[in-house]
Write a structure and sequence with these properties.
Blueprint: E1 2-6, E2 15-19, E3 29-38, H1 41-48, E4 65-72, E5 84-87, E6 98-102, E7 106-108, H2 115-118, H3 122-135, E8 143-146, H4 152-163, E9 167-172, H5 175-183, E10 188-191, H6 197-203, E11 211-216, H7 219-228, E12 230-238, H8 250-253, E13 258-261, H9 269-284, E14 292-297, H10 301-309, E15 318-322
Parallel strand pairs: 8-9, 8-11, 9-10, 11-12, 12-13, 14-15
Antiparallel strand pairs: 1-2, 3-4, 3-6, 3-15, 4-5, 5-7
Length: about 325
Amino acid sequence: MKAIRVYEFGGPEVLKYEDVPDPTAGSGQIVVRVQAAGVNPVEAYIRSGNYGRDRPLPYTPGSDAAGVVEAVGEDVTGFAVGDRVYTAGTLTGAYAEKALVPVEQAYKLPDSVSFAQGAGVHVPYATAYRALLQRAKGVAGETVLVHGASGGVGIAAVQIARALGLTVYGTAGTTEGRGLVEKEGAHRVYDHTAEGYLDEAKAETPGGKGFDIILEMLANINLDRDLLALAPFGRVVVIGSRGRVEINPRETMSRDAAILGMTLFNVTPPEMAGIHAALYAGMENKTLRPVVGTKIPLADAARAHAEILQPSSGAHGKIVLIPQANRS
């Protein structure tokens, strides 16, 4: 089968498209024929070698895939050959025509959800759910600001927050992106390239008191200003950052505010099971609708990595890789 392999850390050019042996299912494992693989920023950080969880070399990137069960190992219950599934991790990497998956990291994919959409479920939607509910403890009636709301995690956060009864404010850098954020449920949308957009957004919260929750995708740019936009007892959840930032701690003191970090690597198995039970229900009743922005051939994974960190026109949904041999 074909797969992407990384033999050294570096730029997108280290992603090599080559032949590798087919995986074989062992006890408690399934083999998934991948129809689509999701591309996430964390995979680009790991590939660069500048992330705290570097992978042993060589490796195949990716945790998020969607496809069809091709084989099941011993002691596997709940899955059969031919089942449509999406993954929340793999043993062999998702950027491939086939992936070896532990059964505890495989989930049924509703028939109404395409494979390309299924490849955009785990990291984006589990991250958004974790940030909004497990970290920020968001409740109906609160206000939430989603920075970078037109990307994969941002769209997921908008849909989840809206479904739970929060008032949702979102930002995006392009007209197309802002239209997408509004379409997916945000009550108000702002251009985060415009001067003073955060002051404008805060002024439009009830009583101008600020946001109860801010979901921050680029903390090194926004965190200091986020604190000024928080309501009393507000919470900022740091989902992404590309460097250091200086803040004024007094802005947290005056509000009894909290800055909360998060990563999916820290989620416990019971928490993850709860997250995916909620996500399945949301996809099944169509309140959660993964948005696919760009489909790129698996062989062009380097282009996907270049685009995900430096999109030329702003993020508009999820980037997914499509193995050419598995197209259906």
